[in-house]
Amino acid sequence: MRPLLVVVLAVALTGCASTPRQVDSTSPEINPRDPMAATILMQQGQALLADGKAEAALAKHRAALKLQPNNPTAHNMVGLALLQLGDGAAALKSFSNALTLAPSYSDARNNRGVAYLRLGQSSLAEADFLAVLGDRTYANRAGVLYNLGSLYFARGNLASAEENLKRAAVPSGPLEAYLLYAQIEERLGRPEIAESAYHEAMARAPERADVPMALGKLLESLGRVEEARQLYRRVISLAPNSPEAAEARGRLGG
Questions:
Q1: Do 151 and 117 touch, CB atoms closer than 8 A?
Q2: What does the pLDDT look like over 76-125, one tens digit per residue?
Q3: Of 131, 101, 173, which Cα lies nearest the Cα of 78?
């Protein structure tokens, strides 16, 4: 299964600790009496998480949670860091805590769906994703549609996967939606739709080597060998030391 989409949005204050608490030693520069202390910590943690530094991010978010234990955003951010660290069970608890405090918190519900999937509980994940889609005000619908499509793809339900991924493969949606949608169309014997999806993905992310690699293999299977070879050369140029480049060289004959 391709990576699922968790949601990290700008943090906001929601609830306050009743008395100042000690800030974690990882952030000695933060004054716990500053009303913005928790927000600053979560912003720092969010930046660390985006850089792949999940352990450092977790420390920041836990420090924020000490200051504001009733802040659902802090619980959600702790869950995201735990999810990136591979602790699905602990992440699930954090997302559930966020939802106990704010039952309509759709970001946390989507993220809990991802945690359920990581734990192999696909029915509970499906219920969370569908509940988020029921929130007509939710901005990141394309990401949830991608997650739901990925779930159906893993189950082998290609029709439902296709339906959701087609709606997720839009400019505001995740790039991975185009790739998985294209894979499904290949399996369903619709190469022209798959080709179009790969081209859209390449236009959005021209730096990615995996996209022209996938398109090249599709075109090669259709007998369009010279077009495929051009794409393999592009793969090698984009990422000469990547596994895709190694495969491309093999397909080009060394």
A1: yes
A2: 999 999 999 999 999 999 999 999 999 999 999 999 999 999 999 999 99
A3: 101
pLDDT in tens, 17-57: 333 344 444 565 666 666 688 888 999 999 999 999 999 99
Mean pLDDT value of segment 50-70: 93
Calculate the alpha carbon distances from 176 to 10, 53, 108, 243, 251 in Å. Answer: 22, 22, 21, 18, 24
Reading the block at residue 21, the tokens are: 């608490």
CA 73, 70, 35 angle in degrees (round to 5)?
80
CATH of 1-139, one of 1.25.40.10, 3.20.20.70, 3.50.50.60, 3.40.50.720: 1.25.40.10
Cα 104 from Cα 40, distance rounded (Å): 24
Q: What is the DSSP letter of 5?
A: -
